[in-house]
Amino acid sequence: MSRQQGDLELLGDPVAAELLGSRQPAHLAYTWTDGSPRVVPLWFHWTGEQITFGSPPHAPKLAALAANPRVAVTIDQSATWPYHVLMLRGDATVEMCDDVTPEYEASAHRYFGDEADAWLGQLRGRPMARVSVTPTWAAIIDFESRLPSALSA
């Protein structure tokens, strides 16, 4: 049985698993402090319950997330057809940490492979913010069985 868009059970779908384990960056959409929309590509780590991002502790987006934690996250594979897209919504929480977070370290290994330790060595001992989003809504577009709503009507 196909799940409805918005159902968190979609996070167990093979398309979601493919994208959550991929080396594609996530795109975090949030509202800037002046009310304008912003989107930033970020490395991510999926814990099985939350999607997490590492950030420098003084990144401007952290103030915007503190003012309005509502976010959307998209991970897509759009280099080849059929495109696969995972869309999430939820609230972001920010936690200040004294060092590289375990989730950021895991994402660095996924993105950089054997080169991750050299990258992480430059960051160790520096503070880092952990941005975590617990999805409250999920949707998949795979252009096979799930099309954008404008095409499936």
By secondary-structure content and strand pairing, the structural class works out as alpha+beta
Assign the CATH architecture. Answer: Roll
What would the CATH topology be? Pnp Oxidase, Chain A
Q: Give Rg in angstroms.
A: 16 Å
List low-confidence stretches. none
The biggest beta sheet, please?
Answer: 7 strands, antiparallel
Task: Summarize the structure in words.
It is a single chain. By secondary structure, this protein is α+β, with helices and mostly antiparallel strands. It is 25% helix and 36% strand. It has five helices and seven strands; from the N terminus they run αββββαββααβα. It has helices at residues 14-20, 60-67, 102-112, 116-123, 149-152, and strands spanning 26-31, 37-42, 45-46, 51-55, 70-77, 84-97, 128-141. A hairpin with a 4-residue loop joins strand 3 (45-46) and strand 4 (51-55).
How do the helices and strands line up, and which of them pair or pack?
Blueprint: H1 14-20, E1 26-31, E2 37-42, E3 45-46, E4 51-55, H2 60-67, E5 70-77, E6 84-97, H3 102-112, H4 116-123, E7 128-141, H5 149-152
Antiparallel strand pairs: 1-2, 1-5, 3-4, 4-7, 5-6, 6-7
Question: What is the compact description of this entry?
Answer:
The chain is α+β, with helices and mostly antiparallel strands and 153 residues long.
Keywords:
5 helices; alpha+beta; 153 residues; Pnp Oxidase, Chain A
